[in-house]
Design goal:
The structure is a single chain. The chain is low in regular secondary structure. The protein has four helices and ten strands, in the order H-H-E-E-E-E-E-E-E-E-E-E-H-H. Strands 1-2-3-4-5-6-7-8-9-10 form a ten-stranded parallel β-sheet, with no helix packed on it.
């Protein structure tokens, strides 16, 4: 019942209704963190934009599709959570937050990113999973301090060579896309520690032994006929992961004859992973 009432009130733009949804925003939180998640918000109250010392702002799980220009006044904001909303475009104000380090944009309706995103030079963590990307957003390659990139469950078929310029990148998560081959650019990124290509369409994996920084590779649920060879101490998650390299060679031949086609994974299997 409470959520139903909030849903109705969210349509009514009066100041009294806004106070019901978010409370009285009169004082800066002591921890400089403001959490307005799961409030059925359709617009961000301007009162939230006056806290110019704010460091973290959580707006997850609302009904937001835009943000006011006043948001750019939060010059000290380091974390912004906009996941589980209704954004089809990234609001321009987000690209004008000079100290932003962590940006959550998962579970929206994004299909592209503005070129202005490249101005966020301090950004080190970017979550874009569960959106509508069919092409890798190249502006991501202009984020020199990016360390973690989540792009799972989109419809991306390839990665650009420009990605290799992100020398700070340590983990890339690409599960649930449309990759038909292991992205060649990743073979040149010796500094990567985590590579996740689970649930794609990759049929054969190249050797990854030369990637000196690699610690974990996840390749499960691909129609592959071999496991990627990795250096000692690297953890593999996928078929034949527990086999030695010699066993993999024999096993891949047998697998190519018996399970050449990918099988559909049921939702209940995903929940157990």
């Amino acid at each position: 019942m409470g959520n139903a009432i909030r849903g109705v009130i969210a349509f009514i733009p009066s100041e009294r209704c806004q106070r019901f949804l978010v409370g009285d925003l009169k004082e800066m939180p002591l921890d400089r963190t403001l959490d307005l998640s799961s409030r059925q918000l359709r617009r961000l109250p301007l009162a939230a934009c006056v806290f110019d010392e704010l460091v973290k702002l959580y707006l997850s799980d609302n009904n937001l599709s835009s943000l006011p220009a006043e948001l750019q006044g939060l010059k000290k904001l380091q974390l912004l959570a906009l996941d589980f909303n209704c954004f089809e475009e990234l609001p321009a104000a987000v690209c004008r937050l000079p100290q932003l380090c962590i940006l959550y944009l998962g579970n929206n309706r994004l299909y592209s990113l503005p070129q202005e995103l490249g101005e966020l030079k301090d950004l080190n963590t970017l979550w874009l999973e569960m959106n509508c990307f069919t092409v890798f957003p190249k502006v991501v390659c202009e984020l020199p301090n990016l360390k973690t990139l989540h792009l799972g469950y989109n419809q991306i078929q390839s990665l650009p060579r420009e990605l290799g310029s992100l020398e700070e990148l340590r983990s890339i998560w690409l599960a649930g896309n449309q990759l038909t081959e292991f992205p060649p650019v990743l073979l040149e990124m010796h500094f990567l520690a985590v590579v996740d290509v689970d649930r794609n369409r990759i049929r054969r994996f190249p050797g990854l032994c030369h990637l000196q920084g690699l610690k974990l590779v996840i390749y499960d649920h691909n129609p592959c006929v071999n496991a990627p060879a990795v250096a000692e101490g690297v953890r593999r998650v996928g078929r034949w992961a527990d086999c030695s390299d010699e066993q993999e060679e024999d096993g891949s031949k047998a697998a190519s004859e018996t399970t050449a086609e990918v099988t559909e994974v049921h939702p209940e299997e995903e929940e157990n992973i």
